Amino acid sequence: MLADQHLREAIKKLEHVGCASPRLDAECLLMHAWGIQRTALMIQAKSPLPKQVLHHFETMIARRCKREPVAYIVGSKEFWSRDFMVTPDVLIPRPETEHLIEELLKLYPDNQAPYRFADIGTGSGCIAITIAAEYPNATIIATDISEKSLTIARSNAEKHNVLTRIQFKCGDLYQALDAAMPKFDAIVSNPPYVSADKMQYLEQELHHEPAHALTDKKDGLSLLRTLLWQAPQHLKQGGYLLLETGLCGLPETPDTMTMLHTYNDLAGYLRGGVYQYQH
Fold it and tell me: Exposed, middle or buried by CB within 10 Å (0-12, 13-18, 19+), for 179?
């Protein structure tokens, strides 16, 4: 059989199990198995697949048929035009989270200044690493409750040549931060915000991702509340807190913080809030 025939068979299998983008998934997996880009795939569509490539491709399609995310199968995901290693120990980076970076860039347009930033719940490190790359003179602290996640984040930081400017610390939210350390210009976070009662309704792919990175096991707002209420302990006067959220919305703003604005994703849904600490 030729490459395009194997591809059509794979697409049918993915359609049968309800994958949302069967053609795109099948093409991505075949390109990965074959070690080629899309143009080469089109050129070689009428060529037979090498036996080793076919075996690798069929193995990956079988995993995708079980609704395992493509990112975990290929071991990487793009974020802010950079490639990040991902495993089931970390949440898969999503395009919606890039809005956090956009909001930070608006607040701090001088990308050469020696800012101090914190990324709470860093996961794969995609946010902290992107910030480090965009602000070459900034110091970044990245925290996560999972040591396994931090191992992945460190590897990604090394890959993108920013490891020396990011301190990775293990702990639950702000608990990883030393109270004696200098305050931050801004804190960003994409915390777990899926409520416990919504977990059962998530698409099948999400059940392959670490539950502790998806849900607070409560109302979806509990970790967002903690981040908001405790932010003044770690922010400079006039510093900012940027939070990502989802269907749960945002908690009530404490008196110690001022909500500047919310922002939506490209689909028009609420995606986060920007707050400022002012005495």
Answer: exposed
What is the per-residue DSSP string for 77-101? EEETTEEEE--TTSPPP-GGGHHHH
What are the extents of the domains in the chain? 3-66, 87-277
SS (H, E, C) 196-216: HHHHHHCCHHHHHCCHHHCEC
Residue with tokens 């777990």: 192
CB 220 within 8 A of CB 193: yes
pTM of the model: 0.93
Write out pLDDT tens, residues 35-50.
999 999 999 889 999 9
Rounded to whole angstroms, how far apart are CA atoms 272 and 266? 12
Beta strands in the chain (DSSP E): 76-79, 82-85, 116-120, 139-144, 166-170, 184-189, 235-244, 257-264, 270-277
The fourth-level CATH superfamily of domain 87-277 is Vaccinia Virus protein VP39 (3.40.50.150)
Which one-letter amino acid corresponds to residue 181? M
